[in-house]
Design brief:
By secondary structure, this protein is α/β, with parallel strands linked by helices. The chain folds into 3 domains: 180 residues, P-loop containing nucleotide triphosphate hydrolases (Rossmann fold); 68 residues, Helicase, Ruva Protein, domain 3 (Orthogonal Bundle); 75 residues, Orthogonal Bundle (Arc Repressor Mutant, subunit A). It is 46% helix and 13% strand. The strands form 4 sheets. Strands 2-3-6-1-7 form a 5-stranded parallel β-sheet, covered by helices on one side. It starts with 28 loop residues before the first helix and ends with a helix.
């Protein structure tokens, strides 16, 4: 299988504040290197996403039986859930090479034409963050996906000529963290669309045990459960936490990980039992202690925690909302009763009464 030696350009935010957190779902340089060794090689090894695996298995086996290339596949979901891994598995199951690129890397139609014209028959083209591709390239992709043909424009102005270029049949695997940004004409050209869900703790325990075996790390069931419970439903975060706990265990516990060692290690790295880190807790503490649980505007909250507005909105808030610790309302951000309970605080009487209408008695 031919893999791009430089690895995928994920096209995700590159500001360091988005990728210096253990509980961030994006991949950094270390993750990319380690994931290559930990990635499952076929659908049988892939843990979780049961419905997606079952449906994809049917799509691929039917294509093989027909002797045809597989339909184009669109994978959506949060970072770290296995979209890149599934694209590589698709190529492996189809016995085809894979080409890896990303939406931000394709800024001109000519960039896409160069990639498409060099594809081999049956090859898998993985296009990460496909929603960030430029509009001219996107329009060229429509024809390439549907008719396996592109029109290359030669010249400029009135003398420009469109030269049709036939393409060999190929399978496009698009991945996106924001499926709603894909235009309907592009989305409709995918024969199979799947949404990747967050993982259950029991599934993440299996991920941790599998990765520990590959990394030659001794871990018991309780230790794996402790790591899984703090991993935000994301395998990439589980693997990252495992590596940090491994480091702690090698220094403090002769390399063996149990629940006590895992909990102690993650306290050092400031990841609590629900997966919140320093930034998450800082947002909650400011909301509760400074603003009585809200409502408070996003900009004011960001100033209170000493972070940019975008950091709070795009990095901390999604998980806090998903965990039911914070709510977005027309008047501003509001802490839920679960947030007060998680930090061991008692809401003021007026706050508790004011929030009954929002969250129930």
């Amino acid at each position: 299988m031919n893999w791009d030696e430089t690895g995928p350009d994920t096209g995700e935010l590159t500001d360091e504040r988005f990728h210096d957190r253990l509980v961030d779902g994006g991949a950094d340089g270390e993750d990319t290197a380690v994931e290559a060794a930990l990635r499952p090689k076929d659908l049988g090894e892939f843990i979780g996403q049961e419905k997606v695996r079952e449906q994809l298995d049917l799509v691929l086996k039917a294509a093989l039986a027909r002797g045809a290339t597989a339909d184009h596949v669109l994978l959506s979901g949060a970072p770290g859930l296995g979209k890149t891994t599934l694209s590589m598995i698709i190529a492996a199951e189809m016995n085809a090479p894979i080409r890896i690129t990303s939406g931000p890397a394709i800024q001109h139609a000519g960039d896409l034409a160069a990639i498409l014209s060099s594809l081999q028959e049956g090859e898998v083209l993985f296009l990460d963050e496909i929603h960030r591709m430029s509009r001219p390239a996107e329009e060229m992709l429509y024809m390439a996906m549907e008719d396996f043909r592109v029109d290359v424009i030669v010249g400029k102005g009135p003398g420009a000529t469109a030269i049709p270029l036939e393409l060999p049949p190929f399978t496009l695997v698009g991945a996106t963290t924001r499926a709603g940004l894909l235009p309907p004409p592009l989305r409709d050209r995918f024969g199979f669309t799947a949404h990747m869900e967050f993982y259950a703790p029991t599934e993440l325990e299996r991920v941790v045990h599998r990765s520990a075996g590959l990394l030659d790390v001794a871990i018991d069931t309780d230790g794996a459960a402790e790591i899984a419970g703090r991993s935000r439903g994301t395998p990439r975060i589980a693997n990252r936490l495992l590596r940090r706990v491994r480091d702690y265990a090698q220094v403090k516990a002769e390399g063996r990980i149990d629940r006590e060692i895992a909990a102690a290690a993650l306290r050092v790295y400031e990841v609590d039992e629900r997966g919140l880190d320093r930034l998450d807790r800082g947002v909650l503490e400011a909301l509760l202690k400074l603003f009585g649980g809200g409502p408070v505007g996003l900009s004011t909250l960001a100033v209170a925690v000493g972070e940019e507005r975008e950091t709070v909105e795009e990095v901390a808030e999604p998980f806090l909302v998903r965990e039911g610790l914070l709510a977005r309302t027309p008047r501003g951000r509001v802490a839920t009763p679960a947030a007060w309970a998680h930090l061991g605080l008692v809401p003021p009487q007026h706050t508790a009464k004011g929030q009954q209408g929002l969250f129930g008695a």
